[in-house]
């Protein structure tokens, strides 16, 4: 497996018992967020493709917030590999729903009882929409409310910051227990009207 990503991802792949190669053709090429990307590493990623190589992307985040502003996200790495090879990746992270399903299964809960909290309308909120679960869009990150309006992807809740989450859950707990046929409590309160409603 060839990994175009951070050292921590390489370590996780190795910890899972998979072999990581630095050169030559690989069975799988993984593209992820990578702040060490260079022309040489892109060249090695290109040459890692052979007949039958599977292209996997962790996610398609276009950018990632840092204290001094946005930086390129995993989507930059994924896009570079797509552009070089013409291969479409198997995306295992947001906005695909599989990771949410795995998390809910691991916790032994129903996915429809979860709340997706995120600042990226193209990945976090879209994943929630695809999974059919509630979402809370946080205004302090990657996407703006203008982005939300222009995409047509609608969060269930809009928060000014993560500091608003405790209030969200306190209000949810203060509702009467859910009975047969009653909606999940988070669905019942502080839902911002959607433009089409």
Short description:
The protein is 34% helix and 17% strand. With 197 residues, it is of the alpha/beta class. Helix 1 links the parallel strand 1 and strand 2 (28-31).
Give an overview of the whole structure:
It is a single chain. By secondary structure, the chain is an alpha/beta fold. Helices cover 34% and strands 17% of the residues. It is globular, with a radius of gyration of 19 Å. The protein starts with a strand and ends in a 24-residue tail after the last helix. The C terminus is likely disordered.
Keywords:
17% strand; 9 strands; four-stranded parallel beta sheet; 34% helix; disordered C terminus; 197 residues; alpha/beta; 7 helices
How many strand elements? 9
- The helicity comes to 25-40%
- Give helix and strand order, one letter per element, not per position: EHEHEEEHEHEHEHEH
Distance between the termini: 48 Å
Please tell me how large the radius of gyration is: 19 Å
Biggest sheet strand line-up: 1-2-3-6
Shape: globular
Element layout with pairings:
Layout: E1 2-4, H1 7-15, E2 28-31, H2 39-47, E3 54-57, E4 63-66, E5 69-72, H3 74-85, E6 90-91, H4 98-107, E7 115-118, H5 121-131, E8 134-138, H6 145-151, E9 157-159, H7 165-173
Parallel strand pairs: 1-2, 2-3, 3-6, 7-8, 8-9
Antiparallel strand pairs: 4-5
